[in-house]
Amino acid sequence: MNFDGIWTPVVTPFAQDGSIQLDTLRKVVDTLIDQGVHGLIIGGTTGEYYALSKEERKQVFDSVAGHAKGRIPIMAGINATTTEDSLELGQHAKAAGFDAILVAAPYYCQPAQDELLTHVRCVDDALDMPIMLYNFPDRTGVPMTLELIEALRDRPNVQAIKESTGSIERMHALANDHADQLQLSCGMDDQVLEFFAWGARSWVAGASNFLAPEHVALYQACVVEQDLVAGRELAARLLPMLNLLEQGGKFCQYIKYGCELAGLPVGPAHRPLLPLNETEKASFQRTYDALLQHRG
Q: Which UniProt keywords are given for this protein, alphabetically ordered (predicted)?
């Protein structure tokens, strides 16, 4: 499967009581498709999958697949605390018509590398779908080591990796030593230009929920046109926002506030995450307004 392009990890809209707003979710999907993103990820961290029950996650899968299938590639995030739950979610996503799955280390339980390898192989055996690995040890507590990546060479379904460690050294290793094995996807937004310079052709970008045109333009310049000078100018405009998101400590809240400012309110983040305070909103809006000044 070709994972090129901007993949948006779609937000999950909530009402104030925490219930999922499927009508709003479908509007978000329509807007992203209209704005030219290349794929959608449903059930990622930005979608607050960890705050949903399995049945709610399945409901979201069904809603998006029924609405978007055939219009844009869709990937299902199936991470859970157990292999069994990941398989159940993956089987549901496959039946719903998803094109690929996003596979991270099960969180909280912190499997050892041999256990994580067994988990990925089990998912592959059971689902037989294109897989994008998701390496984000700050969230899961467990890295996907280069030795584990190497051990998956015999798995043709393991086709891409979203790399979110922030380590340039590791990004270099993936780009240089595993380019024949895995498509490299930027998962560290404030390093996107570096990823594209080193051959990545994919970006899983939370801020594309509300800044899709800017993300698509940066991809077009760096990957399609191979113009890193123009790409650097575009990245420089985006960088204050990307820095705020990566370093501000309230990623989901900022993404959802960005959607509100973009004219598509998606409700609050799920508790225990709390709304932004007025100072945080003002800082975000200044950054957002400065960015929009460059929009044609």
A: Ligase, Lyase, Schiff base
